[in-house]
């Protein structure tokens, strides 16, 4: 019976993951700051207005995924 050998180590995986993360962030133009993502319907009870106000003072990239922005949210984004 042949010995079992691993082709990679956890350290290799972590190093490669970090390299891929840096490449992806550079390609997307997000090299600095944190990334905040909110996924949900664009409806008042979800509180996206609060999120926009809170994120305005942070060094971050904010993505809201969930549909068309209301006029009120669009005004906060501008």
Question: In percent, how helical is the residue content?
Answer: 40-55%
What gross morphology would you assign?
Answer: elongated
Estimated radius of gyration: 20 Å
Q: Can you write the helix and strand succession as a string?
A: HEHEH
- Helix/sheet category: alpha+beta
Number of helical regions = 3
Read across the widest sheet, the strand sequence of neighbours is 1-2
Query: What does the main sheet amount to?
Result: 2 strands, parallel
Number of strands: 2
- The quaternary structure here is single chain
Low-confidence stretches: none
State the end-to-end CA separation: 66 Å
Fraction in beta strands: 15-25%
The average pLDDT value, as a whole number, equals 84
Structure description:
With 78 residues, the protein is of the alpha+beta class. Helices cover 42% and strands 15% of the residues. The chain is built from 3 helices and 2 strands, in the order H-E-H-E-H. It has a two-stranded parallel ribbon with strand order 1-2.
């Amino acid at each position: 019976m042949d010995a079992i050998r691993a082709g990679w180590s956890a350290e290799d995986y972590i190093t490669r993951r970090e390299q891929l993360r840096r490449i992806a962030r550079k390609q997307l133009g997000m090299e600095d700051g944190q990334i905040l993502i909110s996924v949900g319907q664009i409806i008042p009870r979800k509180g996206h207005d609060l999120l926009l106000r809170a994120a305005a003072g942070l060094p971050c990239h904010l993505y809201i995924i969930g549909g068309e922005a209301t006029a009120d949210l669009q005004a906060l984004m501008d």
